[in-house]
């Protein structure tokens, strides 16, 4: 049944869904990386498509920015459309000298200042982690493609414009690789519903140096990351 935020009919989403933040990125992924892609939803311009990649049925949906938006779409995909594997593909800001612009990161875990997982976990600290098989499949897919990846913790922030400047140093000291805004929420939704999730990121900006990538570079590294994510889903299914 269509949900408040998705107008697809039952069966129109695949069990594997890529989740970029930007709906136009979802459209780009569908037209560039998938075969026979069809649009299945457009409520609020959150565009969703289903097609095939190397013979595997896969969907892609623009899930918006931040944990609340991503969590709404992830939850409705799982509850109403039977999604079982959710892979976020997005950008992040590096918080350390040894993570550079354009690096590809696999978020094995996600810290957060959001309280969503405490709400799910009786007020206690829930360790929001990626599914190990998806994580391993992505690491293997990246190695095969010659894409270097870093695996580690990220920080899912509720504030893009965070006034706590000291937080960058704290993240760096605690081994966090980068800041983004959705992974901890996605991993919480996956845990709550017994499904599997992974976040794959490219570094679009650097919080210590203030550098950021050009639009062209962003597109190219984005496509590299999408291929890693799609190949990971194929490997994981096989
Ligand atoms: N903060 C949060 N999310 C992000 C950033 C950032 O600096 N860069 C890309 N996504």
Helical stretch tally: 7
Task: Classify the beta-strand content into a percent band.
Answer: 25-35%
Q: What CATH architecture do you see?
A: 3-Layer(aba) Sandwich
Fraction in helix: 25-40%
Radius of gyration of CA atoms, rounded to a whole number: 17 Å
Query: Would you tell me which CATH topology applies?
Result: Rossmann fold
Calculate the mean pLDDT score and round it.
97
Structural class: alpha/beta
Reading side by side through the largest sheet, how are the strands ordered?
A: 5-9-8-6-10
Fourth CATH level, the homologous superfamily: Nucleoside phosphorylase domain
Tally of DSSP β-strands:
10
Gap from first CA to last CA: 29 Å
Ligands bound to this protein structure: hypoxanthine
CATH class: Alpha Beta
* Major beta-sheet overview: 5 strands, mixed, barrel
- Which runs of at least 5 residues are low in confidence (pLDDT < 50)? none
Pattern of helices and strands: EHEEEHEEHEHEHEHEH
The outline comes out as globular
The total domain count is 1
